Amino acid sequence: MTDLKHHSPNSPILLTASLHVDEARKAIANLVSDLIQEAGKGNLTGDIELVDLDKAIDRILAEDLLSPIDVPAADNSAMDGFAFDGNCLGNCEDIVTLRIVGTAYAGKPFIGSIGAGECLKIMTGALMPHGCDTVIPQEFTVPADESAVSFKQNQVKREENRRLRGEDLQIGKAAIAAGRLLRPSDLGLAASLGVATLKVHRRLKVAILSSGDELRPLGQALDAGSIYDSNRYSLSGLLNRLNLEIIDCGIVRDDPASLKAAFIDAASKADVLISSGGVSVGEADFTKQIMQELGDVGFWKIAMRPGRPMAFGILRSVQPSGRKTLFFGLPGNPVAVMVTFYQFVRSALLQLNGASQTELPMTQAIAEAPIRKKPGRTEFQRAILGRGVDGKPTVKLTGSQGAGILRSMSEANCFVILPHDQGNVAAGDWVDVALFDGLL
Fold first, then answer.
1. Which of 92, 264, 276, 318 registers the highest number of CB atoms within 10 A of its CB?
2. Span 113-149, pLDDT tens digits
3. Helices 256-269 and 287-294 sit at what angle, rounded to 10 degrees?
4. Torsional class of 99: left (φ above 0), alpha (ψ -120 to 50), beta (otherwise)
5. Which one of 322, 352, 382 terminates a domain?
6. Domain extent at residue 222
7. Using an 8 Å Cβ cutoff, are 31 and 351 in contact?
């Protein structure tokens, strides 16, 4: 078997024995890393774009965003209350009484200084006036008279309830690190710094196609033995979640000439090509034959359910630029397509596009019912994550788990992941759970 730890982009991948899921992931990650290193730009394309902030959602930041300002820009109050010089706390009796000399609002600072025995009514975010370093929350105070306020000395410590200049972020420091898949909160952070544009990696161009004589496009009547092509729509939705550029190459018939022409055309336009169907050992599967001519591709049997057959590798220089195209050949079964995308393709695409975080976060939940499982393969059961009456997370399967039952994915919001050596699961056991992308 080819060494899984050291793949060269110029060497063929000829893995034929059954692989563990983790081995397949490692092989993919290593080859992707080689391709990025070869590009020399932190991602496969090497291209960086400057985009407006409102167009940056789900893009991958290409360079650290350095803060042009201190955040906060000046010392300010962390809450509504009264600002005063905290030095007075050690010199007072149990009850502190201070005379109110003015009010400070956010965006409308108090002009002047605060003297001994005085305080300033202050709102959250308002600048701390000269002479003040402490804020007593309003709810801990009582009026002493019309122009004074009292509170117990032990309800506040000196320098409490104020935010210091640069406490959150200092000028010149990284506010958002390169490689970040930008979320709404990141855009808000950038806007709070006065930043209107961000440098991001160019979106990967991903071509998708389905192969099979039995497939029919939507709108065409089904004849005997034919089915509608659902895989391209599932893949398109998954790719749109990652905000990638999609090139839909349609349905390709099961004959060598058509498949070869389709692969060459798709690879000439795309950074990545994803096909579904044509990777099993059936007599009408010509993908292996074509890949021997066009690239360095391995046809794997992965010890997993669903999604055992898969192809992965490189299409040699068919692009005008000479840049290599990464190829994923996924199974034809609709559920297997989505499972293999989540487990192998999604993280590779994010890695190729320069993302620092590529894996879906994992959690654990309690199985509501027993789950049958044979050791010797990793299983990805479609399930619904919920919460029990005791508040603990629970998970239940979505019924029949067949690889062709797309409803099992449609009704689910997560995978229950049962490891390679795992046996049967009893009701009440804790199991590993991965949420689907888009629900995080």
1. 276
2. 898 899 999 999 999 999 999 999 999 999 988 899 9
3. 50
4. beta
5. 352
6. 18-47+203-352
7. no
